[in-house]
Write a structure and sequence with these properties.
The protein is an alpha/beta fold. It is about 35% helix and about 15% strand. It is built from 9 helices and 7 strands; from the N terminus they run H-H-E-H-E-H-E-E-H-E-H-E-E-H-H-H.
Length: about 270
Amino acid sequence: MWPAAIVLGRYLESERCARLRARDAAILELGAGTGWLALKMSSRFASWTATETTEGGALDRLERNLAKVAGGGTRGFPIARALDWNDADGFVDGGGGGWDLVCGSDLVYSKEGAAALARCLDALLGDWDGDGDEKSAPGDGDGDEKSAPGRRRRPMIAIAQTCGRWGGHGYDEALYFALANRRLRASAAFGETLEDDDTTLRQHVVVFSIERLPGSSDIECVDIERDRRSHPLLRAARIRERNESAQLAALTEDERRELDAARLFDELSST
């Protein structure tokens, strides 16, 4: 199991999610993997749908793991379903009333994966605006009560991310901008956040709450300059830029000219 799944489980067991556990909450898990989180947490909720891709046998493994535990079909026992993040329309209604919580842990392993995840979350949130109202089917707004018949609830979204994995190869940053491009914001809700005076690029798990921002439909509603200074998903990029600046400052004039020539060559070679 991944540390991010453990931290996400602790978040779901915390007081922040007490209202979800107290009512008939419908949970949708993205990228369920082995099914560990679903099997550990599903008894605390009314229904838990664990999803995976059909590629590489991922869904088959998930189904086998869930089938090893008796109780399939009973209240709270997880069920497995295939979900393509690029085509999540069939999951928007959650069987009628919508999802109370959409969750997942360590879901991003490439820039393409970050874009697909953002596309999926965008579809699952539907037309909810930043004030909690849905244009086409308004619900209760705070997610604490059931919606009226025919109306979808606004789902909470909790995504656990191990920030700084693989030396910060840009996947945290890719997730931030993939979300921002769809007017979605990730706010740290649980886990370990690091101060910027700690300049060590090390892994730490943060559970992010994902919400739609009010305003226009483009990235201009996101305060990128502020986030560049403090957002956990951009921490690895900040440290990388500082290290590169320090290395550049230490170069001689000849070394800088050589570096500039190499960069120009790379740019010309890639066009």
